[in-house]
Amino acid sequence: MTGAQEQKIRQTLDDANLQLAIYTATGRLMSHRKAAVAEDVLPDFQELRTQANLLKRHAIENLDHYLEQFESQVVAHGGKVIYARDGAEASEFLIDLAKKKGARLMVKSKSMTTEEIDLNERLERQGIEPVETDLGEYIMQLAHERPYHIVAPALHLTRYDVADLFTRKLGVERETEIEKQTKIARAVLRQKFLAADIGISGANFLVADSGAVVIVTNEGNGRMATTLPRIHVAIAGIEKVIPRAQDLAVFLKILARSANGQHITVYTSFLAGPRREGEIDGPEEFYVVLLDNGRTRLLADREKRQSLYCIRCGACLNHCPVYRKVGGHSYPGVYGGPIGAIITPQYLGVTHDPWLPFASSLCGACAEVCPVKIEIPKLLLALRSEVVQAKLRDTQSRIERLSFRVWAWAMRRPRIYEMLGFMGSALLGGEGWIRRLPKLLSHGPLGAWLSQRDLPRLPARSFRQLWRARRKAGEN
Amino acid sequence: MPRASIFVTCIVDQLYPKVGMAMVDVLERIGWQVDFPERQTCCGQPAFNTGYRDEARTVARHFLDVFRDAEYIVVPSGSCTSMIAHHYAELFQNEPEWLALTHRLEPRIWEFSKFLLEVARVEDVGARLERVATFHDSCHGLRELGIKEGPRRLLARVQGLSLREMDAAEECCGFGGTFSVKFPEISGGMARTKIDSIQRTGADLVVGIDVSCLLQIQGALSRAGLPVGTMHLAEVLACR
To answer: Nearest residue on chain A to B63, judged by CA atoms?
Structure first.
């Protein structure tokens, strides 16, 4: 872990207000979800999860087929599909397009995929102004921060924080009422919608049989961004494709419920191709950029490819006790929480942030709520094993490797195991608690334990000794 | 007399021998003969969860060898039970002989509370304890073995014991094996969230089915100077 990452985690843990903000916001999302998937409200929720899992599995196992089908449908509707190997290729396409069309301003609907490829920075470097139009994303753009949460980008900010930010950045009077803050943002964003040449969106689903890009939103900005400007470009990971429009009957039922307990989002938009003759709205040009950016590497792994099933509901973040402590900015990459801990190492390689898959107590709350049933703890374990197999050369990793080798050797030799127990008991035995140790002993795991918690002293006699004594007493 | 072998787990053997003895007491009280295979050590979970699969396999083979002929294996831990019943198969997917032995033993592994309710079929073991307690659901027991109501049913039959639910009963205590020492601040923070929830119940005792969680909770309670105790379910049921 880098010093900066360690510092970020410590800062978050030490900030009582931030802790409360995260805990309250995620707690609210948890209870809303719980109510929305309750037995009496949605009796077939577990079956829907199974169906969603099977549909995603089928789509991912036949990804080539469905991508081609999707592409031919988009083309049939008069749109174009661009395959981008990575963020550079995807943004190059957009930059070229902007140059060709003389576009300087782009409005964006909320999209984690564009966050993943740093699209805004890349556009800004070319003199193009990207404007986030989802309220949370807009706040984060003003704050120059990346989203704190997949679904709720500004989850960590209170309305007072937002009031200060708006005053500082927009020169408006300090306004702490959320409704009035929304009006301030709306006044700014309306002008941007009207002036923008290109609208950018992500995609929640790409429907193969109809060539539709489906986006689900609550604020209406998604519709404005995709229909007002002359050109609409959707940027989506290749894993977003699903076979049939009717499959949405499953996914739309579980996506919003899992995210924040809404039964369905306010808007569900089906965007398929440019404006046709006789239609009164919609863009003149329609493009879909299909992004790889490491996804085919995931696809190559039979076990871990299920990470591609994710529909980005954010439920695993809300239910993760680690995310709820360290927050969204402590993770490397843009995806935080359990899903981030399994996809980031696969995108970047397991040795990039080798600590990441270990930053979990493996409690399994994530897998319990995942609407597409990704086995997150199992994948974390697989990634941990890959990190170990990479044989990192730092001192700590070497010591750990040696320790586990010795440990395994001892654990299949009961007498040595027992002797180690004696030694431990001689060293740390007695009654009561260990609160701190002499410096020499306070390094390593023991010191780490005692930095947070007390340790009971080891009992004078182990279970096996008590057992033998009892049996002996029984015989006499 | 029916006969049960016990796997007390390394942490009970070394840190909480009283829990093992309590489990023996309860089993004998309800008419089971208890056998403790003395060559037993650990199930291998610490290595498996830290990514050391070769080392985990070495230790797992030892476990399988020690218990190969046991008819019932009773374990005072949800986590270790789940390791054996759910993760050994993954460890041995390329070793047919060990995999076959794993599959043979899987249905014979019983977490202690599940064993009482589903094999021995007793709910009331004749225990008595005058305390106000709250029950902590340990993650692997809850989510991998589906243990939720069982321990509560057993505790409801303990005379004098009153049980209060905490709002975050299902929330992880933050132990997580090597996680607790690799990320001590995060782990400690999770423990403090847990003890806040415990305190809100007003209970003076936390009961659980895994001593690893109790070690974490107890350590955090002691550090915070709070007068709340911890007991394994077996210890509660052994009281009379």
So the answer is: A412
CA dist., res. A447 & res. A435, Å (int): 10
- Chain B partners within 8 Å of A455 (Cβ): 215, 219
In this predicted structure, what is the pLDDT of residue A442?
77
**Pick from A273, A230, A190: nearest CA to A102:** A230
Query: Which of B28, B50, B137, B211 would best serve as a mutation to test chain A binding (most A beta carbons within 10 A)?
Result: B50
Whole-number pLDDT of residue A438: 82
Residue A442's Cβ-side half-sphere holds a number of Cα atoms within 13 Å equal to 11
Domain with residue B175: its CATH number is 3.40.50
Is the same domain home to A193 and A232? yes
Domain membership of residue B192 (yes or no) is yes
The residues with which A271 forms a beta bridge, in sequence order, are A213
A247 pLDDT higher than 80: yes
Whether residues B215 and B192 share a domain: the answer is yes
Q: Number of residue pairs across A and B with CB atoms under 8 Å?
A: 196
For A250-280, what is each residue's pLDDT tens digit? Answer: 999 999 999 999 999 999 999 999 999 999 8
State both tokens at A277.
């003759």
H/E stretch holding B111 reads strand B109-111
Same-domain check for residues A286 and A426? no
Q: How many domains does chain A have?
A: 3
Is B84 domain-assigned?
yes
List the structure tokens of A190. 């309306």
Whether the CB of B157 is below 8 Å from some CB of chain A: the reply is no
Q: Note whether B229 contacts A: Cβ–Cβ < 8 A.
A: no
Strand extents, DSSP E, A128-230: 129-132, 198-201, 205-207, 212-217
Of A321, A386, A453, the CB nearest to B220: A453
B73/A contact by beta carbon, under 8 A: no
Residues A142 and A232 in one domain: yes
Residue A105 tokens read as 């301003």
A7 band by pLDDT with thresholds 50, 70 and 90: very high
CA-based radius of gyration for chain A: 26
